[in-house]
Amino acid sequence: MALVAAYEQLLVDNVSTVRTVESAIRNVTWFLPGRFADADIASEGLYALLSVVSSVHDDLLEKRIPPALSLPPHPFALAAAAPETAGLLSAVPPAAPITPLLPPASEHTRYTRYWSDRSPAYRRLSRALQTTTYIELLLEMVVKKKAGDRNRWRLVLGIEGFKSIIRLILMSITRRPVLLPPTPQREFDFALIPQDKILPPEGVKPKQDEENAQQPQHTGPARAVIPSLAKAPLRSHLYPLLTSLPEEHLAHPLSLLPELSTPGDIVAEVLSSTAVLVQVLLLIHTMVSGESAVVESKLRH
């Protein structure tokens, strides 16, 4: 656990650098195919590895983002933090910003985050399904290259069967249709968040608190600061709240998707979850039937 905490701290301290490296590696994958033997496999492998690592990074950083960053700042936030001056009314604080630092979470993120936080089984299975989606093309390319086309189709059948089973289990957990992707997705660039706004990992003391502890404390009488409402009218500040309400004032995540209440709904969702598997089975059956017909025609002649 100490190693994980150290890695989280390293990631939090170097968010911008990590994002730059990920973007650079992702661009490299566009130039690898055709450069050397098996370059397409190397490019897809690098892309799959980068997708898995980026997903892990998003999961770690998501825990360090305060939900309040998607809400407009308090209209008197800057006024409370204004420096003291000699006069009581001489200091006119600047108007507080009314635009949230981060966009509000989408309905997809709210729903998938709710189930990921509530159900450990959903969290593990959804991660497994998403990881399989990242690496399935790489596995298919490697098996086709090393073991032939027939084994490739066997692998595709196994992967689609595995994914169908996971979707059915997720459906049984939520009693609702399975969203794809089933995990929360990145909706903003973590590198745009100021470093002091990111929560440190557990057990790590924030640097800002350490700096405040080293600074001498002011023991003089407190001075009242009157905020300037003319520069930050309350009405214009509350307007962004129409689209950035706190989580407790929004519709419950379970109400975002209807529950599968009738047998028809359940059958339709089962068919949707296994549609790709059925298509693969039909393709394999068609290929086997065609090969059998060719063999029979050769034997007759």
Automatic annotation (TrEMBL):
Keyword annotations for this protein?
Peroxisome, Peroxisome biogenesis
Cellular location(s):
Peroxisome membrane
Per the record, which residues fall in region Disordered? 201-221
Mark the transmembrane ranges: none
- Recorded superkingdom: Eukaryota
Q: Which residues form a coiled coil?
A: none
* Any single biological process term in GO: peroxisome organization
**Where would you say this protein principally sits, based on its record?**
membrane
GO CC term (a single one): peroxisomal membrane
- Homology family: Belongs to the peroxin-16 family.
- Could you tell me what this protein is called? Peroxisomal membrane protein PEX16
